[in-house]
Design goal:
With 749 residues, the protein is mostly beta strands. It folds into five domains: 130 residues, no CATH class; 120 residues, Jelly Rolls, CATH 2.60.120; 127 residues, Jelly Rolls (Sandwich); 105 residues, Sandwich (Jelly Rolls), CATH 2.60.120; 134 residues, Jelly Rolls (Sandwich), CATH 2.60.120. The chain is 5% helix and 38% strand. The chain is built from four helices and 44 strands. It has a five-stranded mixed β-sheet, with no helix packed on it. The chain has a five-stranded mixed β-sheet with strand order 18-20-25-22-23, with no helix packed on it. A five-stranded mixed β-sheet has the order 35-37-44-39-42. The longest helix has 19 residues.
Length: 749
């Protein structure tokens, strides 16, 4: 229950929802029933319905002028309207127990009106659909996002992370080759992962392995080095090509478990007579499933196995101090894959001992340390740790090595982690004297040396530094200290500078640290600005980031905590956006972040809070939907409409006029900056702005935007006064439920 005054927009939104359910057949039936009822009513009196809510003569409602005969209820206006409640004289009398409704007294009807606001019900989960506010029952689950299309050749899945639908070619056996009777597929047996058009014909197995219509043809292959009896001997440094064609997984390990469409080959690593040696082994493949393992047991009966998992398309195993002799190496990957194996024999050494906080190795300022991560284990948790892979066979992070240093006075500290190979990207974590707990982490960073971890004015004391990687890398680690400096004005949330609606700020993050923890982009340098709201407002924050960077933009209360965060958007492509609706009047913080500490821009847009309006019909120029001059929130669905207009940024080879579309009209009396944002839409959107005195006008240059990922279509335009037509469309023929936010501010040019 929320009291407020939103006019009659809630009533219109509700009626628009009903209109959206109308089909031609339903409308025809409704018309016939309406005619019949009209005749009955006209024959029985004036058509008014007696209200069940009679008002006592001495009540406040009666004194306010509600007629005793009908209580203000009229069949033509509000019969069957679920937003209406009992009689009232003021808003206070209309409070209910439904948190998602705005409650007020409709003075025209002298009845309570409980206007639903679906935005109050969202649970933040995309794939389960939009939650809806029922004015009688409160928040209710809506229909889940349906990604199913009419194409039997695709597997359609809702992707929560990207707020999008994935339509993968049908490949039931997961061998990477779609079934033969679908476009682009050549798999003649989609139940057997060993049979597809990309594999080699295997000799003497009675199957058409490569789907060419011939069984066991003369150019078939037999497995090479498939077991211990046929192991490939390697006794010197160098590169070797291996094939997993026709192989079986004879020696499953923890890093290559059975039942995953894997095969393996066996290599015999031979350390010649003489001194003990280290052996560094790296395997690469175009396929992401590769792993390495070895044992000191018998080759054909391994028990105690050391292994290295797949890090994308690479795996690495560093073996220390091997005495002269022969050691089995099991190289696993997807059956049929071609692999490259690099083996390097080195002078014997010992593995790193600084695996934990208790065994941390001291690091001196200006002195480089090489962190060899290929055999490290993971003991610490960092806010910068990547999300777990959906494929349990692929590791997302190596273990870490730990270093320590001590400051005798407050100092600025920078830490550089430079990868010495291309196996992964370094992850750095700075921790206080406690070290072990996640709460001991002061800041973290993922990236190259250009995005060094930076901490300003660290107090005197002991600190720990852990280094990990997204792969089995060697990392050059260097610590630098300098005199303590003061933070820039926009660092932190205590008293940052102000940003106003429509203003775009250029922000350099070169000397910024990760001062604000909003749980949006861990470890990233940030910049904060005050955003003051004088009334309940909708807010859109937009950040533009540098190439190859990841950025975030957030709106939060002045305390700048994850608990008080109102909105957060993260992306590796511009623009990065965050939306917050019906934000109460007050002072807030707009925070922009960059993973690489690169230059960014920050823009804030605000408007008076408005509920979303359903756009029903608006199928063509006969009745385009009117956008108010101040903008607003709009929702619609193009799934059952017509394709009336083409757009310049659509995918090629589309049918005439492409996908189904809807049309909205905006009249500008003065030159304005207009932002149109389709974030939250359920399909691959396309947005086109047309100009002209008559509908549909002509598409403006650089005014067409396709949106295939979570962020959807976005346009930021400076427009002269005049008439504009906003075309909501689908990219590549797609259609579905859409959302559109429109912000209109004075032009910045």
């Amino acid at each position: 229950m929320r009291n407020g005054s939103r006019g009659d927009s809630g009533r219109y939104d509700y009626l628009a929802r009903l209109a959206a359910l109308a089909t031609p057949a339903r409308l025809a039936a409704i018309s016939l029933v309406g005619l019949a009822l009209s005749g009955l009513i006209s024959g029985c009196g004036n058509g008014s319905v007696q209200s069940p809510f009679h008002v006592d003569a001495g009540s406040e409602a009666g004194a306010a002028g509600a007629p005793d005969t009908d209580g203000g209820l009229n069949v033509g206006m509000d019969a069957g309207d679920p937003t209406l409640g009992g009689p009232c004289a003021d808003d206070v009398q209309c409070a209910d127990d439904i948190p998602c409704t705005t409650d007020r007294c409709d003075q025209e009807l002298q009845r309570c009106r409980h206007v639903p606001d679906d935005s109050e019900c969202g649970d933040g989960v995309y794939c389960n659909g939009d939650e809806l506010c029922d004015p009688k029952l409160g928040c209710r689950a809506g229909p889940p996002v349906t990604c199913a299309d009419a194409d039997p050749c695709t597997i359609d899945t809702c992707i929560e992370k990207t707020h999008s639908c994935s339509r993968a070619p049908r490949d039931s056996d997961g061998d990477g080759d779609p079934v033969w009777n679908c476009t682009g597929g050549g798999d003649c047996n989609d139940t057997d992962p060993g049979v597809n058009s990309d594999t080699k014909e295997v000799c003497a197995n009675g199957k058409d392995d490569n789907c060419d219509g011939t069984v066991d043809e003369t150019d078939c292959v037999s497995p090479a080095h498939d077991d211990c009896a046929d192991a490939l001997t390697i006794d010197a440094s160098g590169f070797t090509s291996l094939s997993l064609a026709a192989t079986a997984l004879d020696y499953p390990t923890q890093c290559a478990p059975a039942g995953e469409m894997l095969g393996d080959v066996v290599v015999a690593l031979k350390v010649p007579e003489g001194d003990a040696q280290d052996v560094d082994v790296v395997v690469r493949g175009s396929d992401s499933l590769v792993s390495l393992a070895t044992t000191l047991d018998k080759c054909d009966h391994p028990v105690d196995v050391r292994c290295s998992p797949s890090f994308g398309s690479v795996s690495r195993l560093r073996l220390y101090g091997l005495a002269p002799g022969v050691y089995p190496l099991y190289v696993a990957g997807k059956v049929g894959a071609d692999l490259s194996l690099a083996v390097t024999f080195l002078a014997a050494s010992t593995p790193p001992q600084n695996e934990t906080c208790g065994t941390a190795l001291p690091i001196e300022p200006g002195v480089s340390e090489t962190a060899v991560l290929s055999r490290s284990t993971s003991d610490l948790t960092s806010a910068c740790d990547p999300e777990a892979s959906s494929d349990e066979l692929i590791a997302t992070k190596s273990g870490e090595l730990v270093y320590s240093f001590t400051l005798t006075e407050a100092r600025d500290v920078r830490v550089f982690g430079s990868p010495l190979d291309d196996y992964g990207v370094p992850e750095l974590s700075l921790r206080n004297a406690g070290c072990k707990s996640p709460s001991n982490e002061l800041t973290c960073r993922i990236g190259s040396p250009a995005s060094a971890l930076f901490a300003r004015a660290l107090p005197a004391g002991q600190y720990f530094l852990s280094v990990a990687s997204s792969g089995p890398s060697d990392v050059d680690l260097r610590l630098e200290e300098s005199a303590a400096t003061s933070p820039p004005a926009d660092q932190g949330c205590v008293s940052p500078p102000q940003i106003v609606s429509g203003q775009t700020l250029d922000v350099s993050l070169t000397d910024h640290v990760d001062a604000v923890d909003l749980g949006c982009l861990a470890g990233a340098p940030d910049s904060s600005h005050v955003l003051n709201l004088s009334e309940s407002s909708d807010v859109l924050l937009v950040a533009r980031i540098s190439a190859n960077d990841t950025g975030a933009v957030s709106l939060a209360a002045p305390t700048c905590s994850e608990q008080t965060r109102l909105a957060c958007g993260t992306s590796s492509t511009s623009p990065v956006r965050a939306q917050a609706y019906a934000v109460a009047p007050g002072s807030y913080r707009a925070v922009v972040e960059s993973a690489l500490g690169s230059p960014v821009t920050l823009t804030a847009f605000t408007r008076k809070a408005v509920p979303a309006t359903l756009v029903a019909f608006a199928d063509d120029c006969s009745a385009p939907f009117e956008i108010p001059a101040a903008g607003g929130r709009f929702k619609g669905n193009t799934a059952n409409l017509h394709a009336d207009f083409s757009a310049g940024c659509d995918l090629g080879n589309q049918a005439q006029n492409g996908a189904a579309d809807q049309l909205l009209h905006l009249r500008l009396e003065t030159k304005s900056r207009v932002v149109l944002d389709m974030a939250g839409s359920k399909y691959s959107t396309m947005l086109s702005v047309r100009s002209g005195a008559t509908c549909p006008g002509t598409e403006l240059p650089l005014a067409c935007a396709a949106g295939q990922a979570a962020s959807r279509s976005f346009l930021d335009l400076d427009l002269e006064s005049g008439d504009y037509y906003v075309q909501v469309d689908g990219y590549g023929g797609d259609a579905g439920a859409w959302s559109l936010d429109v912000y209109v501010t004075p032009s910045s040019i």
